[in-house]
Amino acid sequence: MTTSKTYTAIYDHDTDDHAWNVRIKGLTGCQTYGRSLRQAQSRIREALALWLDTSPGELRVRDQFPAELASVADDVVRARSAAERAGARAQQQTVEAVKALTDLGLSRRDAAELLGLSHQRVQQLLEAS
């Protein structure tokens, strides 16, 4: 089994030209640009494949963005991840509450009213559990 090398693509955003300049770390001259981030990513992978005389699909490339941009993006990724976890917890608590309320003898309509759900949603939750 062979392990392929991971190359690092270093991106810089040119605010004057509204373009992304990108180069491969450690390979002087292997560089390109793109008007959009997606275009720059595609072009650097193509350039690296040509540089190494291989298929772009065989390459492993890690993107490295400017720290101030990566920080903003990382903050959003963390916030979205936390929101997904909170959503999953809320869903589980809702299911448990529906079961508990109906086990206490409440009708599905009354349980729905207390939880701010439709009676159809309460029915779906009970059937799924």
Q: Which structural category do the helix and sheet elements fall into? A: alpha+beta
Summarize the helix and strand pattern as letters. Answer: EEEHEHHH
- Supply Rg: 25 Å
Kindly report the average pLDDT value. 94
Give the overall shape: elongated
What does this structure look like?
The chain has helices at residues 37-52, 67-103, 108-115, 119-128, and strands spanning 6-14, 19-24, 31-34, 60-64. It is an alpha+beta fold. The chain has two domains: 6-65, Double Stranded RNA Binding Domain (2-Layer Sandwich); 80-128. Strands 3-2-1-4 form a four-stranded mixed β-sheet, covered by helices on one side. Strand 1 and strand 2 form a beta hairpin. Helix 2 (67-103) runs antiparallel to helix 3 (108-115) and helix 3 packs across helix 4 (119-128). It is elongated and about 75 Å long.
Briefly characterize the structure.
This protein has 129 residues and is an alpha+beta fold.
Reconstruct the topology from this structure.
Blueprint: E1 6-14, E2 19-24, E3 31-34, H1 37-52, E4 60-64, H2 67-103, H3 108-115, H4 119-128
Parallel strand pairs: 1-4
Antiparallel strand pairs: 1-2, 2-3
Helix pairs in contact: 2-3, 3-4
